[in-house]
Amino acid sequence: MTYDAVPLIPRAVLFGNPTYASPTVSPDGTLLGFLAPEEGVLNVWVGPVDRPHEATPLTHDRGQGIRVFGFCHDDRTLFYLQDADGDENWRLHLLDLTDGRERCVTPYDNVQVRVLGHNRWHPTTMLLGINKDRPELHDVYELDLETDELHKRIENPGFVGWLADTNLEVRGAASITEDGGAVYYLADKAGDFHPWLEVSAEDTNTTSPLGFSRDGRTLYLVSSVGFNAARLVEVDLAEAEREAELVDGRGDGQAGADGSSQRVLAGDDAYDVGGVEFDPQTRAPQAVIFDKDREVWEYVDEDFGRAVEEVRSALGIDGELGITRSERSERTWLVSVVPSDGPVRYYLYDRPTKSLKFLFSHKPDLAGYPLAPMEPFAFTARDGLEIHGYLTFPPETERRDLPAVLNVHGGPWARDSWGYNAEAQWLANRGYVSVEINYRGSTGYGKAFGNAGNKQWGRSMHTDLLDAVEHLVGQGLVDRERVGIMGGSYGGYAALAGAAFTPEAFRCAVDLCGPSNLLTLLSSIPPYWKPLVAMMYAKVGDPETEKDMLWERSPLSRVDDIAIPVLVAQGANDPRVKQAEAEQIVEALKAKGLPHEYLLFPDEGHGLARPENREIYYAAAERFLAEHLGGRTES
Question: Which of 18, 191, 229, 278 has CA atoms 20 to 30 A from the CA of 360?
Fold first, then answer.
């Protein structure tokens, strides 16, 4: 398939490292930090806030690169997290901005660090979660940025998460129940935790605390308890703590607020709260974001709403808006706008003068190439459930009987959203319709839709994908004989399921780090996921009581039925989907003499972080798709 009027976008432009990424303004407003390549590897660069061209690299990693960093509120320290070749055992590094001194303050092997809290009110303290003593549980540690001293504050009795207030006092915690529900706890003045709110399994994915107000009197959470979709709720803590004490005093083990402490601030009947903007000073909510086909902002604070809409109007770009308010005086906002057919653009917004200053786009090299807009669509699944998704069509091509690639998102408790997507642009530029489906079980569409995916791997979650193809074929947009399926993580599982369960529906399948055997997947989860295992069993299946079902839903069980070519790619250090998941399906394909290709990346984890590995993978996938679906390839 060729259409010479549309220039081929090089893979290096689409999948190489961004020129700029993750910019942030220092709390004192003087510096701008961002990620950018140094010798081909993403590192942290810092420069004057309004002159990014004067920035210099402060880190010099030569491995996978740095993805997470931030300025500390002491105005002299920068922190970043780093693992080893994708193993997700994060170490915390500190860098002194005044003298360049760099050190790792958690130099432990096979230990994961989580940042639990750090703020303007306690500028020399960080609160960390570290699983140093027991790999399945993160204890709470306090780090002194002035001395680098680290001491354990709370030993974890079995909680899956912690919640600290703005004084860095741990006042909340969460645990998972045997049936996959959750219990949220509040701490009394003595530091003892009491169960306050018990959430059933049907509400677990759509209910979670967000944080405390600055005065410590209010807790904010998103909650679907009593509703289909998650609302933003404020909780009067004095009343909630009274409820917790009453529950504890009953001794029946049944937590559950009576609702008198809670007030709904915002909600939608069908869509969950997807994001909340908090006032940096008071920590009160100012806006709620609902992820519908496009983002919809609802303002709790009308003054903030007017300011945001002024920014949106001044930008004049059709894209999703992001606002970061890390600078303490709030004079300067860092603004991002994400279109679907162009790179992410970053600006500084000066509030007193209401002026915007363009900083950079994340990939300037995309300029001049014809990018395709992403278009929302919906259809009705075979059981009547409405399913939403996105289409990206090849530009300047008649929309009729086109080859297509069903690109399935991972998670599966996640979703595709509207905006720039490098894979969608790549597929469209090569001549395919890029099809993204938020199948049942995806997040954002309320708990009924999410729970409709429970224990439906390889069943209705998969038939939603098949129904999407039928819908597009029925509309004359897609050629039924030229449809491929690909994805990573759960999307990789879906690709293998497509090849094993419904090979007649697809011409080829591309799997990146997808599980092939649900039994071995669930038996080899990372140790720090073990407190969550009951929730996974409720969503996927219990190996003890549903072993036959899980094996039946595993692509490996139907390897003899695979009749289409399969490309398998895997990171050797993947802690979530182990290398064995790829090896066992590849060995079975090899033993059966079935057509396949296998790419193993020895220096990668769950996904591909290194640009040289992304080039190998996407070059192979591009050639593979072209061979079986007829699209274009880069020479």
Answer: 278
**Count of other CB atoms within 10 angstroms of residue 220:** 19
How far apart are the two ends of the chain, measured CA to CA in Å? 14
Residue 151 burial (C-beta neighbours within 10 Å; 0-12, 13-18, 19+)? exposed
pLDDT score of 133 more than 80: yes
Q: 245 pLDDT exceeds 80?
A: no
Looking at residue 206, its amino acid is: T
Long-range CB pairs of 295-299 (<8 Å, 24+ gap) are: 295/320, 295/321, 295/417, 295/418, 296/271, 297/321, 298/266
Cα distance between residue 401 and residue 391, in whole Å: 14
Q: How many residues does the chain have?
A: 635
| Residue 513 contacts residue 570 (beta carbons within 8 Å) | yes
In the DSSP assignment, the letter for residue 147 is T
Distance separating alpha carbons of residues 604 and 210, to the nearest angstrom: 32
CA angle (612, 616, 622) in 5-degree steps = 135
* Side-chain half-sphere exposure of 215, counting CA atoms within 13 A: 7
Per-residue H/E/C for 93-134 = EEEECCCCCEEECCCCCCCCEEEEEEECCEEEEEEEEEEEEE
| Pairing of the two strands 433-438 and 386-392 | antiparallel
Q: Are 125 and 143 in contact (CB under 8 A)?
A: yes
Inform me whether the pLDDT recorded for 529 exceeds 60: yes
Q: Report phi then psi at 283, rounded to 5.
A: 60, 30
Band of the pLDDT at 310, cuts 50, 70, 90? Answer: very high
Give the integer Cα–Cα distance in Å for 154 and 1: 62
Query: Can you tell me the distance from the alpha carbon of 444 to that of 347, in angstroms, rounded to the nearest whole number?
Result: 28
Residues that are catalytic: 489, 574, 606
Half-sphere exposure of 573 (CA within 13 A, CB side): 15
Q: Which helix (H) or strand (E) holds 218?
A: strand 218-223
DSSP letter at 18 equals P
CA distances from 358 to 47, 50, 330, 349, 355 (A): 16, 9, 18, 9, 10
